[in-house]
Amino acid sequence: MKADISTLLKPDILILQRHLVGDKWSLLVVRDLLRGNVTYGELQNSPEGIPTNILADRLKRLEEAGLIAKSAYQEHPVRYAYELTEKGKALGDVLLAFVRWGKKHIPGTRTLKSPAPHSVPGRKPTRKQDRKS
Hints:
- By secondary structure, the chain is mostly helical.
- It has a single domain, classed as Arc Repressor Mutant, subunit A (Orthogonal Bundle), CATH 1.10.10.
- The chain has helices spanning 5-9, 13-21, 24-34, 40-44, 52-64, 86-89, 91-105; strands at 68-74, 79-84.
- It has a two-stranded antiparallel ribbon with strand order 1-2.
- A hairpin with a 4-residue loop joins strand 1 and strand 2 (79-84).
- 17% of the residues are buried.
């Protein structure tokens, strides 16, 4: 039986997903955006301590994949706030599934309980450290 070429050319869904969000840093950026951290500075202050070069790269990748959008909140110098698109927000269910799985199968699994106290979705940054682009 001859294989259908269109089936062979379709990317494997797991490979595609791993490319988009499969590394730990991308998932942590999505997690922090879900928690209300919207600026580069807030994302950089994640408890995991993401290096600045990796954060910049992951933000670019996530934007190219249509998972986040950025908007300027300051002109000179230009600084951006980031938000999840609908496609990106849908990853919340995926992260929640990881949390549930971890709590069930990995003893000592901890989670961040609540959104960052200084972050409110849709607000403009006010603190100097929040204004990094």
